[in-house]
Design a protein that fits this description.
The complex is a heterodimer of chains A (287) and B (186). In chain A, 74% of the residues lie in helices and 0% in strands. Chain A has 287 residues and is mostly helical. In chain A, helix 5 (71-83) runs parallel beside helix 7 (102-117), helix 6 crosses helix 7 and helix 11 (189-199) packs antiparallel against helix 14. The longest helix of chain A has 33 residues, at 233-265. Chain A is elongated. Chain B has 186 residues and is an all-alpha fold. In chain B, helix 1 (3-11) crosses helix 2 (15-37) and helix 7 (132-143) crosses helix 9. Chain B starts with a helix and ends in a 6-residue tail after the last helix. The chains are: A mainly alpha (287), B mainly alpha (186). Chains A and B meet through helix 5, helix 7 and helix 8 of A and helix 2, helix 3, helix 5, helix 6 and helix 7 of B.
Chain lengths: 287, 186
Amino acid sequence: MDCRAFEALLDSWLQGQAPAKELAGIEAHAAACARCRKLHALVLASLSTPTLEAPRSLTQAVLARTTGPACGRAGELLPELVEGTLGNEDAKLVQLHAELCEACAAMARALPRLTADLPLLAEMQPDPSFARGVLARTTHTPLRRLSARIARVWGQLVLRPRFELEGAYLGFILLLGLFVLGGSRASQLSHLALDIAATNPVSVAASPTERLVTSLRQATRDARARLGAPMPLAIDSIEHSWNKTTWPLRQAASRVRSSFWKLWNGDGPPAAGEGTNRARAASIRRA
Amino acid sequence: MELATLLDRCRQGDALAWEALVRKYEARVYGMAMHYLRNSAEAQDASQDVFVRVWRHLGQGVGETIFVPWLLCLTRNASIDRLRRRKARRDTAELCPDATRSLAADAAGPEEATMAASRRKLVWGALGRLGHANREILLLKEIQGLDLQEIAQLLAVPLGTVKSRVHRARAELARHVLVLDPSYGD
């Protein structure tokens, strides 16, 4: 017998299961070969030594250097394990992992609790007036239903995120059609306004305040003519005070307007007097 | 009264039967709307719209076997419509308004009711941290109790996709719950 054959039969010899016809050859080789005799002694010694438990961190250290922690895979399979739909082999592997991994063990405890707690969130009590609100909307008269429907549709429209933009766009289109596009009666309003301004003693470029004062003066004169008597002193004094107070402002405004027209027309300001408004209207029409 | 009888009477115009039907399902519809909208006022409005729609379509012969899935489908659509019309904030701090009351009715004693209410608040908060898809799948499967086939039809996805989504959603919810309370489940 050679050393290779001896090694192949060594385990069965030590367990007492070697074939009878090989026993003589094994014992003769062990007696003759020092190397195989030493091997035999080592194997005998390892069988008698008690096995030691490896430290828990050894597995984690090995996993860290190889595939990484198995928690990801365990997390995927834990819900099925809790549900009872996981295969036997996978279930054993997941349970083995959960014994060693506290995080996965906590998840394994949490999942069944969630299965019990989640259905409790199915029903929530609304306000006590909820049912009354539903009945009011479903059992009243057709007219109230229509108005409620209109109000609801309007409410939904207003909630649209671009409602203001759409409204402004539609308004712009409407104004464009009314005042700008040709053939529209409203587009003639600007020319009509100019014609009125040309014949109206109120200044075209006058400020709103001056137009108001002029209108008040006109109204006062009309009232005097109608009543045939001098107006009360209070109104005259108010008018006098107003003229005195606003005279500097009106002078300044007049100078500003003159400069503006000079720049706009590229020539001197229009002549003062009654022809002023007609000249301005004519210049605007020419432009 | 059985659902089939209630529905028949509602179709005949029985106002009392209609009121009974509304009261029977208001909690469920409102609860589902709350899970989507996370806002009590919006959820009440959406729930009212759902019931009005149910009332209008009662005459179309909706049977008792499909009434609840149909009702939940209407609720889902109404809630999603509202979500699309405005940006719904996921307010995880908003306390579910009936948590304590609803749980107290089922628990054996006050101490258990308090614990159950706090667990419910915890789960509600964890649900708010989920993505919309995962929250919806848990809402339909775990909370409302629809079966996988119904969910697959409702969401128009394959059955296998629903199964895998349910598992993933459960695991994610458990992780969020444990972040909020590591002792949950002990």
